Amino acid sequence: MTRTDPASAATKPFLTDVETLRARARKHLATGNVTTTYRGDVGQTIAILQTVLATEVVCVLRYSMHAIAATGISSQSVKAEFSQHATEEWEHMMAVAERINQLGGVPNFNPDGMVTRSASQYGDAGNLVEMIRENLIAERIAIDHYRELIRYFGDDDPATRIMLEGILVVEEEHANDMHDLLVDHEGKSALAAR
User: Fold this and answer.
1) Which of 145, 170, 179 is nearest to 87 (CA)?
2) How far is CA 44 from CA 78, 165, 177, in A?
3) Which of the pair, 80 or 74, is modelled with greater confidence?
4) Of 134, 123, 127, 122, which Cα lies nearest the Cα of 178?
């Protein structure tokens, strides 16, 4: 027989009885999935996610434009990579928009002010290497931004945190892809220069 240390039992979260859970679930139905146990600030979370949404929209547009505009003898494989990244950024955009909706907000797809709401920039690259570099920079911005947001949401909003963690994994893959393309086209590793 194992005895529970009272000090360690006190640090575990309290589990609500089933009757209380049922009663709380019946109250405030208009708030949807935002229940009394949500520890974040819903308004602040929606405002933050609007900036994430804008960032993803700008990334979709930039990658899409680069997939179309890239030229040169070795551009076909890079165009395909840009196109794949545009599709994945679109999936991120839709996930973020859905999360805003779940929290009771309205996703802001209005193009007015999109660039100022976005953490990343659209850019104006003129050639293939500049496009790759712009995308690598944008991915690095997104990575740092999303890491900060993941820490910010912590346990206050695990659903938003987990969504951002999933997006972060893909953004890190994108950055790695762009770095590899940059090395292929410039002939040197930026990682080696550290």
Assistant:
1) 170
2) 38, 19, 33
3) 80
4) 134
